[in-house]
Amino acid sequence: MNLKTTICLGLGTNIGDRKDNLTRAIEKLSLAFGKCQAASSFIETEPWGFESSNSFLNCAVMFKTELSPLQVLDATEEIERELGRTVKSDGRIYHDRIIDIDILLYGREIVKEERLTVPHPLMHKRMFVLQPLAEISPDAIHPVLGKSIKELLEELREQ
User: Fold this and answer.
1) Is the peptide bond preceding residue 119 cis, with omega within 30 degrees of 0?
2) What is the pLDDT of residues 100-151, one digit of tens each?
3) I want to staple 37 with a disulfide (CB 3.0 to 4.6 A). Which of 13, 58, 62, 106 is the partner?
4) Coil, helix or strand for 114?
5) Start-to-end Cα distance in the chain
6) How far apart are CA 148 and CA 139, in angstroms?
7) Phi, psi at residue 145, to the nearest 5°?
């Protein structure tokens, strides 16, 4: 039997019924990974990295899984497609989106694949990621930076 790894995912949406988009994504993630271990509150945030008149609703969720990091990525991308996302951000060009699911942490592993980098390479610079993640897993350690999510959030707030 494989050991289950704790994964933390960041969810965001800024078009359509945002609350429903997040709720449906969490339901589909639960079907893919099993019972949700923790879910943050939904927070409203401004778009990051692009201009839009649509603000985001963001949250963080935690699951335990036996899937590999790339299998988790495949599952989250399939859920994005099922919920209507047709365009992924490419080359750091961001767009309005019905749903975005990012793998923030995969246990304490560091993953560098062509399709996937974990921990998420920009998470420590994004309040909309750290704030909900700190709500559900403040003591999780960023495996590259060696700091807790709570510490990273405090540092970002001081900037």
Assistant:
1) yes
2) 999 999 999 999 999 999 999 999 999 999 999 999 999 999 999 999 999 9
3) 62
4) coil
5) 45
6) 5
7) -85, -15
Amino acid of residue 59: C
Give residue limits of the domains in the chain: 5-123
Mean pLDDT along residues 70-74:
96
Both tokens of 75, joined, read 């599952």
Tell how strand 117-118 and strand 43-45 pair up.
unpaired
For residue 61, what are its two tokens? 């969720």
Secondary-structure class of domain 5-123 per CATH: alpha beta
Give 46-62 as a DSSP string: --SSS--SSPEEEEEEE
pLDDT on residue 150? 97
